[in-house]
Automatic annotation (TrEMBL):
Positions contributing to L-citrulline binding: 84, 120, 124, 173, 182, 258, 270
Catalysed reactions listed for this entry: L-citrulline + L-aspartate + ATP = 2-(N(omega)-L-arginino)succinate + AMP + diphosphate + H(+)
Alphabetized SUPFAM superfamilies for the sequence: Adenine nucleotide alpha hydrolases-like, Argininosuccinate synthetase, C-terminal domain
Pathway(s) of this molecule: Amino-acid biosynthesis; L-arginine biosynthesis; L-arginine from L-ornithine and carbamoyl phosphate: step 2/3
PANTHER family, A to Z: ARGININOSUCCINATE SYNTHASE (PTHR11587)
Pfam family, one: Arginosuc_syn_C
InterPro entries linked to this entry: Arginosuc_syn_C, Arginosuc_syn_N, Arginosuc_synth, Arginosuc_synth_CS, Arginosuc_synth_type_1_subfam, AS_cat/multimer_dom_body, Rossmann-like_a/b/a_fold
GO biological process entries: argininosuccinate metabolic process; L-arginine biosynthetic process; urea cycle
The protein's name in its UniProt record: Argininosuccinate synthase
Assigned EC number: 6.3.4.5
Length: 403
């Protein structure tokens, strides 16, 4: 049997690699996607082979991740539970697709991942496998083995000589990529406990940044970020620049009690410095160029888009169809927004676009006001007619009862 495992080199997948070999007497191939993780991937191929992998593929997918997954979500302003910018959920369909491609190339019978039965990732990998490779067996080692806790996995790794970073007194589950970090478990399971500063990887303490405020200008073309401070940049360079600048000012932390796909609430602490800046700038530019109906409809559909990503339905027809709406709606979203960053805050300084729908001659209350005020009074009369008729009817009912 040949199995391709989505491999990060972390605790779960390191243990899973060795466990799959022993459990299925299989040849296990490790697939590792470089999506801009905070942890170094140096030596990951060697580590996988020392753990027993017969083959290892490491791919640099940072550019693909941003252009094909993050940017479409940004066009939709997609955020789960209105806050989470979905760094981990957006990476799963990409990892799944590339893992399946690797499985085809080596003639694998099965693919495997390191998600748990309580988490969301099992659904995301299952969704990708169902859409792209329903003929391959999908294995979930963490549901099959008798290791019931992270401490058990740490002991298993020690017994089998598998090097891992997790230790019993700091058992956080950490997932990072170029778009953000996700931290769970440990003391964070107590929702009354503040997150310890040591867990943060991408942002400084907003109260102890040691620097003053800083202005930064982000440019967009049809909704896609293309420049920082007037310098056109590749997606990877742009996000890395914003991560460094915003992270230095403590921007991008979220402590969220979220609603998991499997039905219960869980606490996650997230960082997305660049994402927080880009979402704020993008929304501000939209506010200038989109008409009211399009803007409000986009807000509703964007919430749905975020839920589709979170729920592991990236490959669904609905998500593809929504891309069509957002691509059309974003055509005029070209221009720049200047923001001031400081001590965890973002303030809007300037908005500039050739497609502005703002006209000061109508918005102003000065002498050059061009709005027809009498027309406005007539509009208000007609617009409130349903409430007026209802009010008159209520008054007649009250008079009838009184008589």
């Amino acid at each position: 049997m040949k199995i391709v495992l989505a491999y990060s080199g972390g605790l779960d997948t390191s243990v899973a690699l060795r466990w799959l070999i022993d459990r299925y007497d299989a040849e296990v191939y490790a697939y590792c996607a470089d999506i801009g993780q905070q942890e170094s991937l140096d030596g990951i191929e060697r580590k996988a082979k020392e753990t027993g992998a017969v083959g290892v593929l490491v791919e640099d997918l940072r550019e693909t991740f941003l252009t094909d997954y993050v940017w479409p979500a940004l066009l939709a302003n997609a955020a789960y539970d209105r806050q989470y910018l979905l760094a981990a959920p957006m990476s799963r369909p990409l990892i799944c697709a590339r893992m399946i491609s690797y499985a085809r190339s080596v003639g694998a019978d099965a693919i495997a991942h390191g998600a748990t039965g309580k988490g969301n990732d099992q659904v995301r990998f299952a969704g990708g496998a169902a859409a792209l490779a329903p003929d391959l067996t999908l294995l979930t080692p963490l549901l099959e083995w008798d290791l019931t806790s992270r401490q058990d996995e740490i002991r298993y790794a020690a017994d089998h000589g598998i090097p891992v970073d997790a230790v019993a007194d700091k058992p956080y589950s950490v997932d990072t990529n170029i778009w953000g970090s996700s931290i769970e478990c440990g003391v964070l399971d107590d929702i009354a406990a503040p997150p310890p500063e040591e867990i943060y990887l991408m942002t400084r303490d907003p109260d102890r940044t040691g620097v003053g405020s800083q202005e930064i200008t982000v440019g967009f073309t049809a909704g896609v970020p293309t420049s920082v401070d007037g310098e056109r940049m590749s997606p990877v360079a742009l996000v890395e620049r914003l991560n460094a600048v915003a992270g230095r000012h403590g921007v991008g932390r979220i402590d969220l009690l979220e609603n998991r796909v499997v039905g219960f609430k869980t606490r996650g602490v997230y960082e997305s410095p660049a994402g927080t800046v880009l979402h704020r700038a993008h929304r501000e530019l939209e506010s200038v160029v989109l008409d009211r109906d399009t803007l409000h409809t986009a807000e509703t559909l964007g919430q749905r888009y975020g839920q589709l990503i979170y729920d592991g339905l990236w490959f669904s027809p609905l998500r593809t169809a929504l891309d069509g709406f957002f691509a059309a709606a974003q055509e005029p979203v070209t221009g720049s927004v200047t923001l001031r960053l400081g001590h965890g805050r973002i303030d809007v300084v300037r908005r500039s676009t050739p497609n502005s729908l703002y006209d000061r001659h109508f918005a102003s209350y000065e002498s050059d006001d061009q709005f027809e005020h009498l027309a406005g009074a007539g509009f208000s009369y007609a617009f409130t007619m349903p409430m007026r008729i209802r009010g008159l009817a209520r008054r007649r009912d009250q008079d009838t009862v009184g008589s």
